[in-house]
Structures are given as structure tokens and as C-alpha cells.
Amino acid sequence: MTSxxxxxxxxxxxxxHPELKRRxxxxxxxxxxxxxxxxxxxxxxxxxxxxxxxxxxxTRNILVPRTGRDVPFTIENVPYTDTFGRETVSFVRTxxxxxxxxxxxxxxxxxxxxxxxxxxxxxxxxxxxELHLSAEPDGSLLIRSGEHRFREGPVDVRVPGPIGAxxxxxxxxxxxxxxxxxxxxxxxxxxxxxxxxxxxxxxxYTDVRARGVRPGLRPVREExxx
Length: 226
Hints:
- The protein has helices at 4-9, 18-23, 51-58, 208-211; strands at residues 32-45, 68-77, 79-81, 87-90, 92-95, 102-104, 106-110, 117-121, 127-135, 141-152, 155-158, 165-174, 179-188, 192-207.
- It is mostly beta strands.
- Strands 1, 2, 3, 4, 5, 6, 7, 8, 9, 10, 11, 12, 13 and 14 form a 14-stranded antiparallel β-sheet that branches.
């Protein structure tokens, strides 16, 4: 067994920086969970027209409707087996903004063909995105989203490009500071930049077999459709 990320990337995984290789080796095989703690130097979103969509998404822990600088941040990557028997890794991000924290939840599984990762977003997994992972020449990780689908009950439709958005995540490790660096941008083909954040964090690893999955980390509803 190996992590879902190593499987999806194949030989390209070995080109990652050693710290990134460990972070993206979290899984049932390794028995490790990873918690990152740090600060997002900037959280931003597009023009005023974006706010209603971000506010709606925030009701299901999708995206973040607030902006801010120097925002304390936590990301929890915990592997578990979902109700459909699939290995899953949580990507639960908590931004400690003034007033109350905001969460951006995602749960990742390996695609049926094993060549990409499927990213189920939010508390009820209404949105699912294909993720394509690749190693950059400097050992950083580049993640780009592909097709997006909306699912609710019998509804299962592709989100058209003009009204959808493309997410790009770049994660690297800074040897000088001993910190991971991350930059996220979500851009709409029609409306331009929608949302993003950038900053840094340190990571700690725990034995998931001993600690398990904390309450509230898993979604309220899990989606079986890949």
C-alpha cells in the first residue's frame, strides 16, 4: 500500500522535496496524520459580486467569505476509511478570523483509475473536483483542478467552464525557515479571480491509529459517486 497522492503522481512523486514527500505520504499505510499550524499572510477575494457566492459556500464550509492579513491557520490531514470503503484524507482548513473561525473543508480520495485525486468539498460533498498533481523543478508541488461536478440527490451535472472556476495550489518547503509555504488561487473563466490565500506553516505528525479521527472532522454526508 502507498498514499493516494504517491499513487496518483507515480514516479513524479519522488521529485518532491523530502518534507513534501513525507507530508503527502499521510495515509492508512503510513499510519500518520499531519497537522499544519501557521499564519496566512493574506486572504483575499474578488470584487463585491463574489461575496454572495462565498457567503453561500461558507454555510457548507466551502471557501471563506472574509478577507484578512496575518490570520492564524490550521490544516488537518487525517486518513480514514469512508463509509464506502475508500481511503480518504481530510484537508480541513481553519482560519481564525476576527469574530469567529471559518472552515474550508475537503476530503480527498483516489480516482477509480488511480491517475488523479478526487476532491469532495464541504460538509455535504455537493461539489467534487478532479485534481492533477505534479512536481515542479524546485521540488514544490503544483495542484490544478480539472472537471467540477455538482451532486445533490439524483442530480449529477458537470459545472460548465464559463461559470465554474479553476483552483491552483502551490506548496513548497523553505529550508531556511523550516516552514511550508502555500499559495492558493481560485479563478473563474468568466469573472476572474474569486478567492485565494498565501502564507506558511509548520507540520507535526501523529499516529492516527492511536488517536483516531476527531469528532467533527468528517463530513456530514459522504458522496459515493466518483
